[in-house]
Recover the amino acids of this structure.
């Protein structure tokens, strides 16, 4: 599985007074099995970008290729593509509609034409993987808490067995534990199922901890694309576009300025700890 | 597909018409509609056409944008024209085929109707294109004030402005939920009518829930800010006429006078 965007430009409301360029000539490649983070201030085009990955919106100009095939080609089966690239929207709990949790999660596989039994099997597996307790399976999704709803919604996409999972701010509005839970589950999925992950987030700490590649968006452009280390080493430029590096980066730079020989590239707490202890000679 | 609906949409531009008091625009629109039905000869239509064309020119709204809004009403217009064409009795028969006869009078009626209706629609959409929904309801509230002894005028205006405000929000929400369900393999485009209606359930249930949630939130937010209806309420920017507005009224009465004179003379 691989996705490639070639010179993709997207404009909202073309031909009206409200025309708005949300993506400006973006080119990028997503190879199989990567764990990617997408950051950018609000309105920078992150959600617009990820909706190109599964053909929900059509680029105003440019191409989107899935496994080398143009997804806007004439006979391309975009419904199949959407089962391959599962997309979980911002506040996905707003898309729940069935009378109970299990049936809601079955919606995706049912649309793919799976048999009743297979639907159920996949739904149970997905619900298990997102870590929702069994006692909730037959409750109305509307009676669950926000975090539980979020899990149901993610399970609804997972049940389609996608080869890539794209999550738009999956942790927005959750408490610290709920946040870590969901991200840990996503990481587990990445490791056990081997699926590629792209995750939009505003938390630099989470990015440093989980992802192997960061894509930075700013006003429809893509100023940085690289490993967390590379990207966060530009922390001064990041600040100029309304972002920041993880707090650890700042501490390490401050320590280095004061003459402690620490590694300023450390981005997570444990890396920082090691580097500081080493610099202190303990 | 949702994008094609332009009725009631606002087109921001910096023009003399945009800056007019909304009351002037509402009254002028009403007078214009009346004038269309007062007129019954071709020279009158010419006057109406010139007046409208001048307004469009001054408003700086592109003609293509106005005509795009006409598309959704073309069907209605078509039906009216066809009915007038075939059901108007008359002496001089132009063509007869099968059981349908088209008379000269019918043809004339159809053309008149088409002209009147399209001028009416273009005229009204020009008003909504150059006036924000808020200004519109504000003006309506002021114009209806004399009726406040028998109607809750303020509440009606408030409900209208909230309803208008929510149209784009709900459209956006529809778009979002539709995409979210499409990402789960939902199909809104194929199948016969029954299948399609059934397929709408995953769209409609979340949409209704979100509409109720929003309505509830809004009511709470209004109450939290001590909203208590119209009694004793004042406005931050009350409407008041300025020089240009009187000029516009002058032009409007002038136009109406021309229409009446034309009607009497011809
Ligand atoms: N449906 C729409 N119609 C018109 N403009 C839109 C629409 N959706 C987004 N935009 C505009 O496109 C730009 C990019 O929006 P996008 O939703 O991709 O931002 P984002 O990076 O996801 O922001 P956030 O972090 O707030 O979710 C914004 O400036 C926004 O105003
Ligand atoms: Mg977004």
């Amino acid at each position: 599985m691989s996705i490639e965007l070639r010179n993709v430009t997207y404009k909202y409301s073309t031909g009206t007074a409200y025309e708005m360029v949300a993506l400006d000539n973006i080119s990028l490649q997503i190879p199989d099995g990567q764990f990617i983070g997408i950051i950018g201030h609000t309105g920078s085009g992150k959600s617009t970008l990820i909706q190109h990955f599964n053909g929900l919106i059509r680029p105003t100009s440019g191409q989107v290729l899935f496994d080398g095939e143009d997804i806007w080609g004439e006979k391309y089966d975009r419904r199949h593509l959407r089962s391959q690239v599962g997309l979980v929207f911002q506040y996905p709990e707003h898309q729940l509609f069935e009378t109970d949790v299990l049936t809601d999660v079955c919606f995706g596989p049912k649309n793919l034409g799976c048999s009743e039994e297979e639907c159920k099997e996949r739904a149970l597996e997905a619900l298990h993987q997102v870590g929702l307790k069994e006692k909730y399976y037959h409750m109305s999704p509307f009676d669950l808490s926000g975090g539980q709803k979020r899990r149901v919604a993610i399970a609804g996409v997972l049940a389609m067995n996608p080869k890539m999972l794209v999550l738009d701010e999956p942790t927005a509005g959750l408490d610290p534990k709920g946040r870590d839970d969901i991200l840990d589950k996503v990481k587990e999925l990445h490791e056990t199922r081997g699926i590629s992950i792209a995750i939009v987030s505003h938390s630099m700490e989470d990015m440093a901890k989980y992802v192997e590649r960061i894509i930075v968006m700013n006003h429809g452009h893509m100023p940085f694309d690289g490993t967390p280390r590379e990207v966060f080493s530009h922390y001064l430029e990041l600040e100029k576009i309304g972002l920041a590096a993880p707090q650890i980066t700042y501490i390490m730079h401050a320590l280095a300025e004061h003459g402690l020989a620490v590694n300023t590239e450390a981005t997570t707490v444990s890396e920082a700890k090691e580097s500081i202890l080493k610099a202190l000679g303990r | 597909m949702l994008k094609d609906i332009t009725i009631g949409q606002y087109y921001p531009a910096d023009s003399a018409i945009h800056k007019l008091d909304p009351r002037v625009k509402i009254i002028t629109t009403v007078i214009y509609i009346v004038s269309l039905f007062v007129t019954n000869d071709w020279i009158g239509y010419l006057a109406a056409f010139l007046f409208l064309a001048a307004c469009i020119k001054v408003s700086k709204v592109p003609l293509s944008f106005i005509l795009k809004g006409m598309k959704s009403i073309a069907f209605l217009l078509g039906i009216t024209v066809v009915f007038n064409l075939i059901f108007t009795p008359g002496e001089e028969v132009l063509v007869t085929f099968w059981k349908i006869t088209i008379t000269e009078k019918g043809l004339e009626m159809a053309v008149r109707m088409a002209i009147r209706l399209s001028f009416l629609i273009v005229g009204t959409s020009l008003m909504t294109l150059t006036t924000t929904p808020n200004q519109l309801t504000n003006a309506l509230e002021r114009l209806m004030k004399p009726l406040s002894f028998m109607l809750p005028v303020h509440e009606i205006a408030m409900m209208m402005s909230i309803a208008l405000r929510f149209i784009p929000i709900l459209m956006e929400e529809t778009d979002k939920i539709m995409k979210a369900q499409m990402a789960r393999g939902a199909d809104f485009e194929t199948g016969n009518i029954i299948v399609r209606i059934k397929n709408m359930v995953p769209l409609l249930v979340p949409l209704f829930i979100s509409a109720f949630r929003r309505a509830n939130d809004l009511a709470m937010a209004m109450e939290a800010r001590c909203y208590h209806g119209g009694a004793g309420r004042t406005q931050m920017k009350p409407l008041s006429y300025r020089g240009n507005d009187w000029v516009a009224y002058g032009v409007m009465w002038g136009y109406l006078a021309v229409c009446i004179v034309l009607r009497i003379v011809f």
In short: DSSP finds eleven helices and two strands in chain B. The first helix of chain B runs from residue 16 to 19.
